[in-house]
Write a structure and sequence with these properties.
- The longest helix has 21 residues.
- Helix 4 packs across helix 5, helix 5 packs antiparallel against helix 6 and helix 11 packs across helix 12.
- The chain is built from 12 helices and 2 strands; from the N terminus they run H-H-H-H-H-H-H-H-E-E-H-H-H-H.
- By secondary structure, it is mainly alpha-helical.
- A hairpin with a 2-residue loop joins strand 1 and strand 2.
- A two-stranded antiparallel ribbon has the order 1-2.
Length: 264
């Protein structure tokens, strides 16, 4: 995972550029409006790497990256305004779910192609609030079990809601998913599994015209043996020939069909 720094020093017209994040958050409590805004701007610049990194994770051909970054900066400002430095937690850990939540909210409200069921929409809304609060309290992102307990939701619903990321745009079946030397794959290549019966159907289709060219007696014998599941003795009784004769005819016919298939 790409890292981003929260210790970059930004040169401004006052000494606040040398403040640590913790010092800035404490100073903002008593600072005037203008100075508080300058401190907030400094924090935004220091943590802009987090916004750029998260925006890049969600960017695609249908969405301009600059547009996503603007949404991410809004989330960063909200995180700055809500952060309580006295809890002793890292600001980046607290800010990440808030920025990510704003980006996801943007897609949900503006660009969703597929609507989630109402129960998942409601669960996701509840979990956003619980996730932000618990991240602040714990100094890390909560687990599924912790979120379920805090939000009073079933664990399986929490897992489903977290996995049901907003669908931003449908992916083309022809979209490449891998390229390695001369081999390349598309989304369509990864869907489904090979039907084990396909070779059987191919063989049946290949042998059908060959069977049609056999004499009538051989065709009848094949039909009785492989479609009616009759024994060689039963076939012989019906055709008026011995079981041994039936065996020799079947073997000769099958060998002939096999040779024709191989040659074709």
């Amino acid at each position: 995972m790409r890292s981003y720094s929260s210790t970059d020093t930004v040169v401004t017209g006052s000494g606040i550029a040398e403040y640590t994040d913790q010092e800035l958050f404490r100073a903002m409590r008593t600072a005037g409006l203008v100075e508080k805004r300058r401190m907030q701007d400094l924090l935004v610049r220091r943590h802009s790497g987090l916004v750029r990194w998260l925006a890049a994770q969600y960017a695609n051909k249908a969405v301009d990256a600059d547009e996503l970054r603007q949404v991410g900066y809004l989330g960063l400002v909200l995180a700055i305004q809500r952060f309580d430095v006295d809890r002793g937690h890292d600001f980046t850990t607290f800010a990440r779910p808030t920025v990510q939540g704003e980006i996801r909210r943007y897609f949900r409200d503006k660009r969703r192609w597929i609507r989630l069921p109402r129960r998942l929409q409601e669960a996701k809304a509840t979990l956003r609030e619980s996730n932000e609060l618990m991240t602040h309290q714990l100094g890390r992102e909560p687990t599924v079990e912790e979120l379920a307990l805090h939000a009073a939701l079933p664990t399986d619903l929490v897992s489903e809601a977290l996995a049901a990321d907003d669908t931003f745009s449908p992916t083309s079946l022809d979209a490449p998913v891998n390229a390695d030397g001369e081999e390349s794959f598309t989304v369509a290549d990864t869907i489904g599994v090979e039907d084990e019966r396909i070779n059987f159907f191919i063989d049946c289709d290949s042998v059908r015209p060959l069977i049609a060219g056999l004499p009538q007696r051989e065709r009848m014998m094949l039909h009785m043996r492989f479609y009616e599941d009759k024994t060689q003795t039963e076939i012989g009784a019906e055709l008026g020939i011995s079981q041994m004769h039936v065996s020799r005819l079947l073997s000769r016919t099958l060998d002939s069909l096999r040779e024709q298939l191989v040659n074709d």
